[in-house]
Design a protein that fits this description.
The complex is a heterodimer of chains A (310) and B (355). Chain A has 13 helices and 2 strands; from the N terminus they run ααααβαβαααααααα. Chain A is mostly helical and 310 residues long. Chain A has a single domain, classed as ABC transporter involved in vitamin B12 uptake, BtuC (Orthogonal Bundle), CATH 1.10.3470.
Chain lengths: 310, 355
């Protein structure tokens, strides 16, 4: 087999593009889950972000305004979830699923007149000189701005969670909301803020999909990316840096298997195309095998509703 | 109001009055993707709209979109039948068994299943000879590729898709002996992200012309961005690739849908198998781009004319199977039975056909 046809540089570039929507959505969900809330509506918030970002970009001709709109739209949708679960005490799993269904339907409705349009181009950040370097140039210094932002966001979340007082409070709320409450922290407000942040990130991930990765709007275009993002949060055992690993691994295997198919490698396409999911499952099994460690990483109050009177 | 009408229809059905009710004819459609996919489901929906246009108030149509193949499809069709539908069009290959199951429960409702091969007294099948269109775009691809590499985004390894790959390859090979096809199976009909990734992978592997057998225009968008060529699939897709699009295979279901709904209204509906191609207009070839040199355009047009005249069959021997065994002797043309069940690559295509 001639593997020289596999260009590692272009593979790397492609996998980053494929992984970024998932990474963005996952970093948001990580913060939400760290605060003790399980929001299964990632897919719904992503698709709302995809259409909001696309529509506003087309209307204003400015992709940045579109991305901002996508974040707002994702956050607004997330706050519906937040209101229901934090004030009305609805079941988080059921509400999250409903949010996905609602988001998909709502996006289809909003997007009716946007099919077949072209969004404005998102500028690339070709860093002068550096981007002309061989190998390193295309991999590190020649992406669209969003890829850098997604990595910066992960770094920011890591810093916030581990090095700031706010992050400590957020984690405390996620580990033991009763204790946090008794210390005088406003559990509901902190969770709402986390939920809104998660929605904004998912919305941004959706906008990346409709503005950069595919550049077009088609109904249902997220096609399950939100669920992969949810899986990757568990995969990363709620640690921000591992999220990049998980998302790039998933994106990488996806891209690699398509390239291997295109090269005509003698492995059945059926096996190749299931590898991304297979590898995700295998890693999850490995992580969950040590039950004690797995449960130590999961926020202790994850998915539990909080009411001050309890 | 609508609810009471549905209720009345359902009651009428339950009482065994069936289609004898004075109410209008009801036609239901189920799609595998959204009607706004600008590809496969879009064209079926255009057919549905043509039915509404043709019959006005005499026909009421409804559709359910993005229905997964399998048990969900059965539920949706059952609901349509209970809602008083007289004829139901199930428009994806994977709806085959669900359609048969529901049809067995509602003998008075007519079913039309697209691209399948199982029929019953109240189940017809219909499909288009897309391979005729594949032949034409295959010719163009063979002439237009400079890297001698054509990328092909395939969905599922079913006869329909395999036939398309073979037809396109044979045509391309006939005008360009050095041409090579790279096939990527994505195992989905509709996933724009994955289709875009597949297009990128093919381009990285040297393809400069891309064909697809999936439903969204994602690959066309990528081709436009990367400055290579592609073909519209199921729908024209011009707006997604004004520079990239060379031509297209356009599905035109409208005449068939109108005829079948008419047959239900007249009481002349019978179970049958329809497989129409370019000549009756079920397969349309989109306008040739001016990027195609005049002589290549003429060649492609000649192929279209010959297919219409019946003098050209895209599968005319000598053709060997991939393993080198003889499939068609010189001058022999493929019979519909073999085409309908095609599960092998022809000689020259590299890679293994998944099963």
């Amino acid at each position: 087999m001639d593997f020289s046809a596999l260009n590692p540089v272009s593979l790397m570039v492609s996998l980053m593009i494929a992984a970024t929507p998932i990474l963005l959505a996952a970093i948001g969900e990580l913060v939400v889950e760290k605060s003790g809330v399980l929001n299964l509506g990632v897919e719904g918030m992503m698709i709302i972000g995809a259409i909001a970002g696309f529509a506003i970009s087309v209307e204003t001709g400015n992709p940045w305004v579109g991305m901002l709109a996508a974040m707002v739209a994702g956050a607004v949708l997330a706050l519906i979830f937040g209101f229901m679960t934090q004030y009305l005490m609805s079941n988080q799993v059921a509400t999250g699923l409903a949010l996905t269904l609602f988001g998909l339907g709502m996006a289809a409705l909003l997007g009716q007149s946007y099919g077949g349009m072209k969004p404005p181009r998102t500028p690339r950040l070709d860093i002068p000189v550096l981007s002309d370097l061989p190998v390193v140039g295309p991999i590190l210094f020649s992406h669209d701005v969003m890829i850098y932002m997604s990595i910066a966001l992960v770094a920011g979340v890591w810093y916030f969670l581990n090095r700031t007082r706010g992050g400590l409070v957020l984690r405390a709320v996620g580990e033991n909301h009763d204790a946090a409450h008794s210390l005088g922290y406003n559990v509901v407000m902190i969770r709402l803020a986390a939920i809104a942040f998660g929605g904004a990130c998912a919305g941004l991930g959706g906008a990346y999909l409709s503005l950069v990765r595919v550049p077009q709007w088609t109904e249902g275009m997220t096609a399950g990316a939100g669920w992969i993002a949810l899986a990757i949060v568990v995969f990363a055992s709620w640690k921000p840096w591992r999220l990049i690993l998980g998302a790039y691994l998933f994106g990488g295997v996806t891209i690699l298997q398509l390239n291997l198919q295109a090269m005509g490698i003698g492995i059945s396409a059926a096996y190749l195309s299931m590898t991304p999911y297979l590898i995700t499952i295998i890693v999850m099994v490995i992580i969950s095998a040590d039950r004690r460690r797995a449960s130590m990483n999961a926020p202790a109050s994850l998915g539990r509703n909080f009411h001050a009177s309890h | 109001m609508k609810f009471t009408k549905t209720l009345a229809a359902a009651t009428a059905l339950a009482l065994g009055l069936g289609g004898a009710a004075i109410a209008q004819t009801k036609a239901g459609f189920i799609y595998v993707g959204p009607p706004t996919d600008f590809g496969w489901s879009y064209e079926h929906d255009q057919g549905r709209l043509a039915v509404e246009e043709a019959f006005g108030d005499m026909v009421e149509t409804s559709f359910v979109a993005s229905v997964p193949e399998g048990a969900d499809a059965e539920r949706v069709m059952t609901q349509m039948a209970l809602g008083g539908a007289d004829i139901i069009f199930s428009t994806s290959f994977g709806y085959m068994d669900p359609t048969l199951n529901v049809a067995a429960k509602f003998p008075n409702v007519k079913f039309e299943h697209a691209t399948g091969y199982k029929r019953a007294d109240n189940v017809s099948t219909y499909s288009a000879r897309f391979y005729e269109g594949r032949h034409v775009i295959g010719l163009i691809a063979g002439r237009m590729t400079e890297t001698n590499t054509v990328g092909y985004i395939a969905s599922f390894p079913i006869p329909e898709v395999v036939r398309g790959i073979n037809a396109a390859y044979l045509a391309a090979k006939s005008v360009n002996p050095d041409v090579q096809f790279k096939v990527v199976w994505v195992y989905t009909w509709f996933d724009p992200g994955k289709e875009a990734d597949a297009a990128n992978a093919l381009i990285e592997q040297g393809a400069d012309v891309i064909m697809q057998h999936t439903d969204s225009p994602a690959a066309m968008t990528i081709a436009e961005e990367k400055g290579i060529f592609a073909f519209g699939q199921a729908s024209d897709m011009m707006q997604f690739g004004p520079n990239a699009r060379l031509s297209s295979i356009i599905d035109n279901w409208a005449p068939y849908y109108i005829a079948r709904v008419q047959a239900v209204m007249d009481g002349t509906w019978e179970s049958m198998d329809t497989w129409d191609g370019i000549k009756p207009g079920m397969v349309g070839i989109g306008e040739f781009s001016d990027k195609i040199p005049a002589d290549v355009q003429a060649e492609a047009q000649a192929a279209v004319d010959a297919i219409v005249a019946g003098t050209l069959h895209p599968f005319t021997g000598p053709i060997n199977k991939q393993d080198g065994s003889v499939w068609l002797a010189a001058g022999e043309t493929a019979d519909d039975g073999t085409l309908a069940g095609m599960n092998f690559y022809v000689e020259g295509i590299e890679g293994e056909l998944p099963n």
